[in-house]
Write a sequence for this structure.
């Protein structure tokens, strides 16, 4: 019963916190370049504004174009709700399998890429083709990370992994360090952060994800924006859950839950600052360089897996 | 001005001198015009400008070795003239514009499509009843045929707040196979508006041709008027004009450097260049009453004097910007991820740069080191010590780095002006008399040409500005070839042609 309550709370919590994380990253980025930046709560206002506005549709938009934003939002929300954040005591915990999460995120991406091509504008096609090109390398890299983690923790279920790490089952692992770097690189690419993509750009021709969703407006755009915020939170939570789960509540004890929540918020803030610093200190790379960047992530993850297998064989 | 016999002698053999601008303007007949085209095919004369009138066409030329400048005119009552486009591709768009504005038909033209006219003008408002042009919606872009190509139409409405222009890409995946720009969306009839107005009012229009170059264009117009009326300025006016022109150059180059970095999503440089540009504009606003120094340069001198408090303001500004600028440059130069984007991207072929006679940072980044402040030169730059940076790489990085060097030079020029600013009056009255004059000045984009003819009452009979962008836009189309679509923004921003300046 408790697990159901915490699960419901988690579902609500990720939706409430996701715009805050995005707003926080924007504020930190603005401060780092010497600007005052938008208010912390601007993303909430943006979403409210978009929800109020009329959704303009191209005459030749199909049902897919209209349905995709809601499906993308739902799938991403589900991902964010499955990743243990404040507590590992979640009713849907057993389903929070890393491979399943990757599949859910990939489905969302697939839908968005289809929707980008649906109306037949040049930008949508460019965005979709770039996005899919990145995904073709990002997803294997993500899977290799999963294998490494699974080899170390003996499970692909996130609550199990978190319990294993908190339980001290893991010391300093080279393979895990490599997996961490690979996962961060994939997360940067998946969330359209500099150096891979720049959601803040006004240059149509350089966009990736923004080009795909250029035709969206009103509530449809609100769904897609919210999904992007949830995806950022989900990735940050995923990294925290695997590599820094300490503080997470493992029981239903109220004190542990409160401590778990506080540490979760703190971890998200650290992740936000780290992302902002990284994004500010680097220029965007050429579109084709992204393949090399993600190829690097894939290679790191692969090495991590091999190192783990070899050390097991020797041990 | 060195007098190379090549250009002048050849033109003198083709027709008599009709006017002194002070450069000679030769009046050619049809045979003489045909002879000119023959000469152009052989001689190293670059095109400075080409403009039409009710029943005449003028072309300004410069001898590349020696720097002699001359204008050749052809009276064409039948509104037909032989096109120069085949021997000087830079003339093609200027001829198309002359056709749209005055109905002058270039014979044997390489390109007969309209340029400024999008088929939406009210014909009764235009200076001449030009023949109806092709419908705007059916503008035929140059065809590209191959397997696997697709078109990407961009603009004229863009995702950001920039000027309007349409870019038609033909791409093979991410690789650009052809780019064609279609401009003219910002046409506002400046030339027609200036006609029949006094020079004071016309100067205000000249300063609004392209807002970022308001000082430069006001200066070009004023110098052309002063040449037409043989007005000689007090020294202080020249020096104050140069001060404003250099402040404008610094502000625009700072903006461009930041914007190029921003197009590579390196927002740090953008933010800091923006702060410095703002500082320059504020000081300009305090010293000259307008942040962009609009209407500060007038025919006969300058509109407002610089107080001693203003000198202190500018000195403090130059000191502050000078230091901060070097910090940003150091960060740019040490940022491998940024240099990776700019080096080797968007190379303009040096041969094309010379053929189009492109000036400014576009020319200087490709080895064409001409600067109107030096050649033909105008006061007070002969008394100032500065260098014209030249590079050979011709890529985005080179165009950015030329700007960096020019900011350094301009900062040094401003110091010299503050140190040696002569005292005295700042303006003299301009006589209301007939005459014609031409001026070539260095805007931040490059050389801008102004031609002005005044009638007996001293009103503008014909004024024509040729912004530096006319010869830079075509090079953008060559610079992006073989680059990826996503790098267009960098190429475009590094050339930064003016839409408004060339849309007239």
């Amino acid at each position: 019963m408790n697990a159901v309550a915490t699960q419901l709370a988690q579902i609500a919590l990720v939706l409430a916190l996701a715009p805050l994380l995005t707003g926080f990253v924007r504020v930190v980025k603005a401060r780092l370049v010497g600007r005052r930046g938008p208010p912390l709560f601007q993303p909430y206002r943006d979403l409210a504004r978009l929800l109020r506005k009329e959704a303009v549709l191209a005459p030749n938009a199909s049902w897919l174009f209209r349905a995709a934003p809601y499906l993308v939002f739902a799938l991403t929300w589900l991902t964010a709700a499955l990743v243990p954040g404040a507590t590992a005591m979640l009713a849907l915990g057993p389903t929070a399998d890393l491979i399943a999460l990757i599949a859910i995120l990939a489905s969302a991406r697939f839908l968005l890429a289809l929707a980008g091509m649906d109306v037949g504008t040049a930008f949508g096609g460019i965005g979709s083709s770039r996005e899919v090109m990145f995904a073709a390398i990002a997803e294997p890299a993500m899977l290799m990370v999963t294998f490494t983690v699974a080899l170390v923790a003996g499970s692909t279920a996130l609550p199990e992994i978190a319990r294993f790490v908190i339980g001290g089952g893991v010391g300093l692992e080279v393979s895990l360090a490599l997996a961490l770097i690979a996962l961060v690189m994939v997360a940067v690419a998946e969330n359209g952060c500099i150096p891979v993509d720049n959601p803040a750009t006004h240059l149509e021709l350089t966009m990736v994800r923004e080009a795909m969703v250029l035709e969206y407006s009103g509530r449809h755009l609100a769904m897609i924006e919210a999904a992007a915020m949830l995806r950022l939170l989900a990735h940050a939570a995923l990294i925290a859950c695997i590599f820094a789960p300490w503080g997470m509540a493992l029981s239903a004890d109220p004190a542990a839950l409160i401590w778990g929540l506080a540490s979760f918020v703190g971890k998200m803030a650290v992740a936000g600052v780290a992302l902002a610093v990284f994004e500010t200190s680097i220029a965007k790379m050429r579109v084709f360089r992204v393949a090399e960047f993600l190829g690097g992530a894939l290679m790191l993850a692969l090495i991590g897996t091999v190192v783990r297998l070899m050390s097991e064989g020797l041990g | 001005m060195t007098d190379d016999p090549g250009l002048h002698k050849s033109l003198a053999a083709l027709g008599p001198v009709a006017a002194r601008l002070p450069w000679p303007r030769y009046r050619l007949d049809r045979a003489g015009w045909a002879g000119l085209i023959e000469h152009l095919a052989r001689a190293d004369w670059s095109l400075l400008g080409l403009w039409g009138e009710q029943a005449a066409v003028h072309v300004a030329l410069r001898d590349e070795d020696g720097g002699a400048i001359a204008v050749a005119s052809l009276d064409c009552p039948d509104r037909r003239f032989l096109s120069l486009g085949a021997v000087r591709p830079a003339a093609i768009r200027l001829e198309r514009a002359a056709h749209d504005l005055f109905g002058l038909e270039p014979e044997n033209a390489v390109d007969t499509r309209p340029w400024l006219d999008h088929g939406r003008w009210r014909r009764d408002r235009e200076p001449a009843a030009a023949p109806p042009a092709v419908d705007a919606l059916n503008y035929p872009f140059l065809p590209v045929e191959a397997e696997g190509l697709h078109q990407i139409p961009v603009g004229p409405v863009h995702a950001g707040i920039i000027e309007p222009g349409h870019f038609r890409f033909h791409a093979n995946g991410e690789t650009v196979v052809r780019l064609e720009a279609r401009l003219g969306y910002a046409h506002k009839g400046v030339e027609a508006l200036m006609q029949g107005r006094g020079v004071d009012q016309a100067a205000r229009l000249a300063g609004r041709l392209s807002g970022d170059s308001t000082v430069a264009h006001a200066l070009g117009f004023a110098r052309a008027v002063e040449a037409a009326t043989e007005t000689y300025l007090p020294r202080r006016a020249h020096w104050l004009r140069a001060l404003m022109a250099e402040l404008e150059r610094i502000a625009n180059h700072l903006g461009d450097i930041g914007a190029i970095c921003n197009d590579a999503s390196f927002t740090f440089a953008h933010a800091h260049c923006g702060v410095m540009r703002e500082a320059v504009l504020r000081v300009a606003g305090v010293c000259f009453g307008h942040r962009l120094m609009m209407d500060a340069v007038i025919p006969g001198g300058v509109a407002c004097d610089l107080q001693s408090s203003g000198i202190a303001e500018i000195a403090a500004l130059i000191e502050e910007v000078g230091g901060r600028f070097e910090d940003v440059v150091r960060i740019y130069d040490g940022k491998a991820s940024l240099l990776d984007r700019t080096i080797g991207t968007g190379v303009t072929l040096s041969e094309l740069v010379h053929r189009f006679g492109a000036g400014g940072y576009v020319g200087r980044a490709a080895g064409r080191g001409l600067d109107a402040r030096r050649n033909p030169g105008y006061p007070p730059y002969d008394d100032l010590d500065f260098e014209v940076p030249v590079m050979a790489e011709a890529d985005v990085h080179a165009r950015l780095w030329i700007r960096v060097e020019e900011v350094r030079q301009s900062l040094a020029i401003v110091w010299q002006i503050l140190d040696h600013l002569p005292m005295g009056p700042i303006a003299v009255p301009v006589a209301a008399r007939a005459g014609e004059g031409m001026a070539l000045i260095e805007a931040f984009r490059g050389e801008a040409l102004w031609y002005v003819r005044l009638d007996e009452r001293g009103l503008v009979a014909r004024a024509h500005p040729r912004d530096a962008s006319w010869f830079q836009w075509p090079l953008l189309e060559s610079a992006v070839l073989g680059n990826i679509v996503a790098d267009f923004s960098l190429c475009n921003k590094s050339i930064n042609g003016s839409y408004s300046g060339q849309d007239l």
About this structure: Residues 86 and 258 of chain A are 8 Å apart (CA to CA).
